[in-house]
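Re-running the complex after MR caught last week's input typo. The corrected sequence lines follow. Everything else is unchanged.
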Amino acid sequence: MDFAGAYAPAHLKFLLQGFLVTLEVAFISIVLSFVFGIIIGVIRYTKIPVLSQLLAVLVETIRNLPLLLIIFFTYFALPEVGLKLDKMYAAISALVIFESAMLSEIVRSGLQSIDKGQIEAARSSGLTYMQTLWYIILPQALRRMVPPIVSQFISLLKDTSLAIVISLPELMNHAQIINGRNVNFVIPIFILVAFMYFIVNYSLSLLSRRLEYRQR
Amino acid sequence: MLRYSILVEHWDLYMQGFGHTIKASVLALIGSLALGTIIAIFRIAPIRPLNWVGTAYVEFIRNIPLVLIVFVFFMGLPAVGIRFDSFTAGTLGLMVYTAAFIAEAIRSGIQAVPKGQMEAARSSGLTYLQAMRYVILPQAVKIVIPPLGNQFINLVKNSSVLGVIAGLDLMYYGDLISSKTFVTFDVYIFVALFYLVLTIPLSLGVGYLERRLLKAR
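Corrected-run output:
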């Protein structure tokens, strides 16, 4: 094991660059998935006929597939039907497809956890259904969704490492490039990379616990 | 239209991959149930240093990617002379990763059993271990089964990570078939169907158990 060699400044900089890509991909994906997740979750909650059943089938299918398969699909299979995405977009679309399905379930169960009496009260005080949803239900549900969404974000951050299969230049990919130079770097690099993921994810999970605690 | 001839011609290869995916998932499940139970016990045992070890394991493993853990078994340990074939490395990685989640599921199940149960058992003369074995665990098992089912579904999906290290699973064979036939779209659609054959029944089963448990309360 060669800790000094593995932690050479050039390597550290290279890993940090990879980590920035990881964070960037994760951040863009979570924002987009959040938007789609809310739309899908609300449609399924309001039970719009046909559309909501279609989305139910879609969401269940995606949730039951491995993310790795979806990444393979967006990068290797879509070009075959004429849709060519570069690595970055392929990774982001795969993550967004998968995470939107996950988040839509969080949104839907968050909405369903709001007491039915709230809707009845709002409706009888003259709000339309859409107004009730927008001003009464969503704000309360969103607050309850924060902790599960943060843990979903942690999963997403970890899952970006799967994009190593399409050699997206994220943290794991950069780690493997350094590992390829010298077998004595492997363990030191893995230790460092593990701590990089750990620090960010653990801080997020502490934050999520804090938010959960504040709500009670 | 999907080219079903690909599925028919490469049925044996798909089956090889499907078999390995099931094998890796089941072996990793058995291993992670054992390891997860030990860690859960560490976390709740009334011995401080064990609590720390258990908490450190769960918090560390849960917050790093599975791919990294699998790579540690696949490349990290070989660098110090401990070698596995890719299937074993992948399965061990899955086991270590899933154990952290299973430990959490078991711990919260045990802690969901009311405190009075332990107190009553202890004051009727049972030792801590006897109380655990005969009073707490039998009640906790019922609560723990649905979350464990969810972990198993995740495990089946996560087993696809074996594909990253050529671990002979469905993803690996999908890759193999697509490089033989130069077709990707259809090949991976069939791979997806094989995964769904495993995960959809599991999801429905877990959903059923969850609803039944909810009613029982």
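None of the earlier attempt is carried over here. The radius of gyration of chain A is 21 Å. The interface with chain B takes residues 1, 60-61, 63-69, 72-73, 76-78, 80-81, 154, 158-162, 164-165, 172, 176, 179, 183-184, 186-187, 190, 193-194, 197-198, 201-202, 205 of chain A (CB under 8 Å).
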